[in-house]
Design a protein that fits this description.
Layout: H1 20-26, H2 29-37, E1 54-58, E2 64-67, E3 71-72, E4 80-81, E5 90-95, E6 102-107, E7 113-118, E8 128-131, E9 136-140
Antiparallel strand pairs: 1-2, 1-9, 3-4, 4-8, 5-6, 6-7, 7-8
């Protein structure tokens, strides 16, 4: 699935497209609803990731999205990050559902819905990427334990 590394040593990915049937076979029911149909998981249902060094990848295609060092506890019930690991792997779009306007974030490699980004983050970036945990896979840094 991975296409090699770019000049910074990060994965460079080709676009991933699959049929709905293929996504349903690959993903759990909840991951399918969240990533392919923009559902939202219950708060605190998937925010139990390890605190060891590592990175977070898209559960659908494996694209690198976030690094553990950018994760923080926002107290909102979803994994929160102040910046993406590979900015070009994350796309944004306007989301006017639920009687409000938000900025949806999705994986640029496979179009998976990840969550939303807000401008109320506590770090110098001022951003809070509020991500559905079921959309993420944690990859520990080599030589560390989860």
């Amino acid at each position: 699935m991975f296409q090699g590394f770019d000049q910074k040593g990060r994965d460079s990915m080709k676009k991933v497209t699959k049929t709905e049937a293929e996504w349903k076979t690959q993903l759990s029911d909840e991951a399918y609803q969240v990533t392919r149909h923009a559902a939202t998981e219950r708060p605190y249902s998937h925010d139990d990731f390890p605190t060891a060094p590592g990175r977070y990848r898209c559960t659908c295609c494996g694209a690198e999205l976030f690094e553990q060092t950018n994760k923080f506890d926002a107290g909102c019930g979803w994994p929160s990050f102040d910046a993406p690991l590979v900015p070009e792997n994350i796309g944004e779009s306007r989301d006017a559902s639920r009687a409000m306007v938000r900025t949806e974030v999705h994986c640029n490699t496979c179009a998976a819905h990840l969550g939303h980004v807000f401008d109320d983050g506590p770090t110098e970036t001022g951003l809070r990427y509020c991500i559905n945990g079921v959309a993420l896979d944690f990859e520990p840094k080599l030589g560390t334990k989860e």
